[in-house]
Structures are given as C-alpha cells and as structure tokens.
Design brief:
Length: 242
C-alpha cells in the first residue's frame, strides 16, 4: 500500500515538474515574441525663412515599451532670433486598443510662451483609412482651460526614395488665455507640404512650404501685439529615426 502511494507521489511530482517546464518555456517564448523595444523619430528639424528672418522648429517623438504598452515622449517648439518662443513636452502612457490604434493618457507642459501651462492629456493615435496618420488629443488645464488638437499626415511615395508629405494641424481652445496669446474657439491652423529624399530609410533631408494662420480671438490678440496673423514659409530640414 505504501509502495503504491509512493509511486503515485512520484508520478504527481514528475507531472508537476514537466508542467512547470512547459509553462516556463511558454513564458520565455511569449517574452521573446514581445520584446522590449525603443523607437525615436525626429519628424521635423527645419529652418523656416520669412523675408530674411529664420526660425528653427522641431517636432520629435519616441517610445519605449512592448507591443501593447508603451511610454511615449513628444516634444515640439520654435526658436526665433536666438530665443525659444514655443516649447512643449508631453509624457504619455499608450495602450493598443485596436489594430494600428493606441489610446494615450498623460501630461503636457508648455515651457514657452511664458507663463508656463500644464495639462492633463487624453488622446488617440493611429493609422486611419487610406493611410492617414492621425493624432487627436484633448487637453485639460488649470482654471477650466481646455484644448483640442487635430493632427493629420499622409505619405505619398513618388519613388522608392522620394516621398511627398502633406500635413494639417488645427488647435481649438475652450476659453481665452490672453497671457499666452490664445483665444477661445478655433485658434490656429497650420498646413505643410514637404518633399523628402531618403538617403537611407533612417535619414532624409527635405524641402517644402508651410502655411499658418490665426483665427478669431487668437488673431485679434496677435494683431494687438503687432504679430502677423498669417504666414507662408519656405522650409528646409531633415527627418531621422532609429
């Protein structure tokens, strides 16, 4: 009787060890199928020329994470006359919710213009039908401030190395913030058309044209400050990623 019991215990132990090995192998395989990855994209680093005045602008983003969960960092800004006029930084947690689509939540801080502003962020980013890259975000700040940003981009391959990229961005604000020159409603629209040549897939110089216009209360605030409400600029820049 004791012998039979011992045999059963040995068989159970052996099955436990085998099942444990199978589980560990499956876990290692799952980890190998979903490795930790890093991506960085300098989407735009460019000089914009207006009648001899040159502005330097940038738009960059990167992430670290796995297939379904990532940590994103986004930044954009502008320097003119050796002074930073706009500087924005976002830190976001991103989760895949569908094929080609992520939902993102986090924080945004505007270092410039002064005074600085901080926002909570919720947005969605992905590839819309017909391959439109889409980034839509809602921002909620202090004192009832709210904002909405719509960003769309499309890449048209003229050749294997020559790519034409139209882009459109629109910004809306729930209330006026005269201290930073922002009015309620539709604030600004920016449209660009850039032609890049990929020396390698990771690096590509480009040329293009960029148009921006202020609307409504934002245009009134800009005019009162002696600033242009509409600009058309020739741009020269570089795009790179790793």
């Amino acid at each position: 009787m004791e012998s039979r019991t011992a045999n059963k215990l040995w068989i159970a132990a052996a099955l436990f060890v085998v099942s444990g090995n199978i589980y560990c192998n499956e876990a290692r395989a799952a980890a190998a199928d979903d490795p930790l990855l890093v991506m960085g994209l300098l989407d735009q680093l460019e000089i914009r020329d207006i009648g001899g005045d040159r502005d330097v602008t940038w738009d960059a983003q990167g992430w670290i994470g796995k297939d379904l969960h990532k940590l994103w960092l986004k930044t954009e800004g502008e320097r003119a006359d050796s002074k930073t006029e706009e500087f924005e930084l976002q830190l976001l947690y991103s989760k895949a919710i569908a094929r080609f689509w992520d939902i993102q939540v986090g924080v945004r801080h505007d270092f410039e213009p002064s005074p600085s502003r901080s926002w909570a962020v919720i947005g969605i980013q992905g590839l819309a039908p017909y391959f439109f890259e889409t980034d839509v975000a809602i921002f909620v700040g202090d004192n009832g401030r709210t904002a909405l940003r719509l960003d769309f981009e499309y890449e048209s391959l003229l050749t294997q190395r020559l790519i034409l990229t139209p882009e459109l961005e629109a910004n809306f604000y729930g209330k006026s913030d005269p201290e930073v020159g922002v009015g309620s409603g539709l604030s600004t629209i920016q449209a660009g058309l850039r032609l890049r040549y990929e020396i390698r897939r990771e690096i590509a110089p480009y040329i293009g044209i960029n148009w921006s216009k202020s609307f409504g209360n934002t245009a009134e605030l800009a005019a009162a400050a002696g600033q242009a409400t509409s600009e058309t600029q020739i741009v020269v820049g570089i795009r790179a990623w790793f």
